[in-house]
Amino acid sequence: MLSFKQPNHFQSLMVLQWPLSYLILCGRRSAWVRNWCAWTHIRDYFPISPLLAPLLKSSALESALNPEVSLPLLSCVISRHDLWHFSPWLQILKTKDLSPEHNYLMGVHPHGILTFGGVCNFCTEATGFSKIFPGITPYLATLSWFFKVPFLRDYLMAKGLCSVSRSAIDYLLSHGTGNLVGIVVGGVGEALQSMPNTTTLILRKHKGFVRTALQHGAHLVPTFTFGETEVYDQVLYHKDSCMYKFQRHFRQIFGFYFCVFYGRGFRQGSTGLLPYSLPIVTVVGEPLPLPKIEKPSQEVVDKYHALYMDALHKLFDQHKTQYGCSETQKLLFL
Known about the structure:
It is an enzyme of class 2 (transferase). By secondary structure, the protein is α/β, with parallel strands linked by helices. The chain has one domain.
């Protein structure tokens, strides 16, 4: 079993603060907020996977990535073509350049419990997004009701989050170019599928994002975050249980599920709400160009939805053995 360094208390506090620090008043996207040092501490909380070592060409890097060596880690966007250029201090790699001349609609998979990969990579500069994808402005869509809460709305917008409402996404994809809008396609329902050693996505019936991309001629970008479902354990309830009915009722009121999850505590071996200090690796796939069709038929939507699912499946299969999944593990679509 792989052993990782024990995060220090300060890094642990930084991980806890990101969903709680809603006191900043910025009102609009803020480079200052996106560059807070708190995000780098969150990045360093998650270790670089020793699974990268066999793929590196440099023997010096192989020894540096020995599990017995204590190194700061990250959530990173990784490229199978550039792995041999990877160093412990380089945070983001890519599989394909994104041209600032186009707009992009990015599928973020899986949801996980708190979507650490999506937040750390696309809502902060902790992993150097703007340097790796110059000219691209990333956004991550989240529940609309968050933007009705004073202070919270300003905090989220400062980081580059936007409402998942149709009007907000239409606006970003129709004003200028170089916008990358990420949508956690599985939604809050996928949070209940978040369990270690699972790769199940709610995607088959979720086709609205494809229709939106077609209407704007935006390129579809598949992504998959390995390790997102590994950082928390979750208590699952039978569909006939009172607790499951409560979870469904809770979602009807608040828009998301009340998940009962747990991780580690401040002391090694203890249980708490901190995530396990395990690798989180986000792989960004090659953009899928789409034609611009103002009123796409259902057949056209189905066609490009199938192409997207196929691209996502191939992306997963190409990288799964490098990042903790077995050769026989399958990506399941519900």
